[in-house]
């Protein structure tokens, strides 16, 4: 079975490291970005199977980036999980067509469960096509 690639867009180095360590242990291939500009550059090389986006970023808002990705023909089929410490971000993420929302601080195993659920749902919907 080929490794699933997850793109993590998170500007907080410590949070990115924690998620990176966990997901590598679980056998995922990772793309890491700390800004929207970096994400756009990275996905030119290879598309991920899932995006994990932070809301507060140095050069954008994760909910807006989510909406950009969900309305782009090349990325609209890729599941997106939005993460935020802000109370009002969940509705923004839903409005931006996010597939799931995780509030910070989060339980790392809950993040893993949700990633796996989105990847499973995504592969099942592609299998029907």
Explain this structure to me?
The protein has 129 residues and is of the alpha/beta class. The chain has one domain (5-128): Response regulator (Rossmann fold). Helices cover 47% and strands 22% of the residues. The protein is built from 5 helices and 7 strands, in the order βαβαβββαβαβα. The protein has helices at 13-25, 36-45, 62-70, 89-95, 108-128, and strands at 5-9, 29-33, 50-54, 56-57, 60-61, 80-84, 100-103. It has a 5-stranded parallel sheet with strand order 2-1-3-6-7, with helices on both faces. Strands 4-5 form a two-stranded antiparallel ribbon. α4 (89-95) links the parallel β6 (80-84) and β7 (100-103). The longest helix has 21 residues, at 108-128. The model has no long low-confidence stretch (mean pLDDT 91). It comes from Pedobacter suwonensis. One of its GO terms (biological process) is phosphorelay signal transduction system. InterPro entries: Bact_response_regulator (IPR050595), CheY-like_superfamily (IPR011006), Sig_transdc_resp-reg_receiver (IPR001789). The modification 4-aspartylphosphate is found at residue 54. Residues 5-119 form the Response regulatory domain.
Characteristics of this structure?
129 residues; alpha/beta; Rossmann fold; five-stranded parallel beta sheet; two-stranded antiparallel ribbon; 7 strands; Sig_transdc_resp-reg_receiver; Bact_response_regulator
Here the CATH topology equals Rossmann fold
Question: What is the beta-strand fraction?
Answer: 15-25%
Number of helices: 5
The profile of the biggest β sheet is: 5 strands, parallel
Count of DSSP E strands? 7
Organism: Pedobacter suwonensis
Pfam families: Response_reg
Domain Response regulatory: 5-119
Keywords: Phosphoprotein
């Amino acid at each position: 079975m080929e490794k699933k690639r997850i793109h993590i867009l998170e500007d907080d180095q410590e949070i990115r490291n924690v998620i990176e360590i966990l997901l590598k242990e679980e056998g995922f291939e990772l793309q890491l970005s700390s800004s929207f500009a970096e994400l756009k550059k990275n996905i030119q090389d290879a598309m991920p199977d899932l995006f994990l986006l932070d809301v507060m970023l140095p050069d954008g808002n994760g909910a807006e980036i989510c909406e950009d990705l969900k309305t782009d023909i090349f990325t609209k089929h890729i599941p997106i999980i939005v993460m935020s410490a802000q109370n009002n971000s969940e509705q923004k993420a839903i409005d931006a067509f996010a597939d799931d929302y995780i509030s910070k601080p989060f339980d790392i195993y809950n993040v893993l469960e949700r990633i796996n659920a989105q990847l499973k749902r995504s592969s099942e919907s592609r299998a029907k096509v």
